[in-house]
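Need residues for this backbone.
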């Protein structure tokens, strides 16, 4: 397992950007150990980004795991009943298969959780902080929001068969409208309920455009309460600069064994996968014998490494190659001169061929700096 440090500075910069956003809203840092009993993860593999976990046997004979996730540990160690709410953010190293490389990596995972008597305000606040997180990472972003209860009601109206429902959910996630209809016709499901399901699958747009349309055709699906929850959560964006970045899309599907209610995914224009995901996970709380409700999200910092590469394509702004007769003071003075202009500098006596720099300068004795070109 290799720790990729190539974009470490970029990731750390984003962490320092995100932490103040969360602390301003009263979230305090959660810290945990590197290890948990493997049983915690083996029973909840569907909740993990990857079901591959690094394990080892402790001196007492217990099978332990290098933590692949933080949320499960937070839930496990939370009080069974919480008065009010507990607001936590985390910045922890996890050990799992990276979505970016398909290899085990030590990844800095960041996110937040709100646990306890979670209501409509808390859900709206978490949504707002998710959007703020995306904005802090890139000016061009989209937060896709859905309500699992609305889509679940439409699926159940088509068929009560669990196996058929599982296949339908997969097609919904793939936005495969044709296969859903074909599957339901073959299984002799309730085709009268298909129009509502197909309509939900095709809906995508801003809350201002989509919510009025939803109100018209979801009454027959008996999801008035769920629609009210969605409208209430999204109301935090009304009139804000983030409103146009919010999209309602019911193909955003989480694992229904863990998630419920509001779920969401965040996308940046230069990364092909979601870099943020979250939602309500009361079902997970119940499975782990907790009476509290919960909502939260995680930012996948391993995918942000791609964002760092795509922004410039370079490791540093410039390389400064100094001649052997330059004094350390001359070299440092030249480096500081570029640094004060906001440039990152890699100073060396010779180019090792491993560092990608946007520009290359040479430094000669006496402090003479020349720009090197291919010409």
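Answer:
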């Amino acid at each position: 397992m290799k720790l990729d440090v190539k974009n470490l500075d970029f990731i750390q910069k984003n962490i320092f950007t995100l932490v103040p956003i969360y602390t301003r809203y009263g979230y305090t840092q959660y810290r945990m150990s590197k290890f948990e009993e493997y049983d915690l993860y083996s029973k909840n593999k569907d909740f993990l980004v990857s079901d591959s976990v690094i394990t080892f046997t402790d001196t007492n004979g217990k099978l332990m795991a290098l933590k692949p996730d933080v949320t499960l540990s937070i839930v496990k160690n939370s009080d069974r009943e919480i008065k009010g709410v507990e607001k936590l953010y985390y910045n922890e190293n996890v050990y799992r298969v990276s979505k970016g490389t398909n290899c085990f990596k030590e990844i800095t995972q960041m996110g937040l959780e709100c646990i306890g008597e979670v209501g409509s305000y808390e859900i709206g606040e978490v949504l707002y902080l998710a959007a703020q997180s995306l904005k802090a990472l890139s000016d061009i972003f989209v937060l896709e929001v859905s309500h699992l209860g609305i889509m679940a009601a439409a699926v159940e109206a088509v068929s009560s068969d669990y196996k058929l429902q599982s296949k339908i959910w997969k097609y919904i996630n793939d936005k495969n409208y044709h296969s859903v209809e074909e599957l339901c016709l073959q299984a002799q499901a309730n085709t009268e309920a298909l129009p509502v399901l197909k309509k939900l699958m095709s809906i995508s747009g801003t809350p201002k455009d989509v919510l009025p349309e939803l109100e018209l055709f979801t009454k027959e699906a008996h999801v008035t309460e769920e629609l009210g929850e969605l409208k209430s959560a999204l109301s935090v964006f009304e009139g804000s600069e983030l409103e146009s970045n919010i999209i309602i899309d019911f193909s955003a599907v989480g694992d229904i064994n863990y998630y419920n209610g509001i779920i969401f995914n965040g996308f940046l224009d230069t990364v092909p996968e979601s870099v943020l995901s979250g939602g309500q996970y009361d079902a997970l709380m119940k499975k782990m014998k907790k009476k509290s409700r919960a909502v939260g999200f995680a930012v996948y910092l391993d995918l942000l490494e791609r964002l760092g590469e795509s922004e410039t394509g370079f490791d540093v702004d410039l390389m400064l190659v100094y001649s052997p007769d330059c004094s350390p003071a001359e070299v440092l003075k030249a480096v500081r001169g570029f640094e004060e202009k906001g440039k990152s500098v890699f100073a060396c006596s010779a180019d090792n061929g491993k560092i990608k720099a946007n520009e290359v300068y040479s430094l000669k004795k006496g402090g003479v700096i020349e720009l090197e070109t291919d010409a």
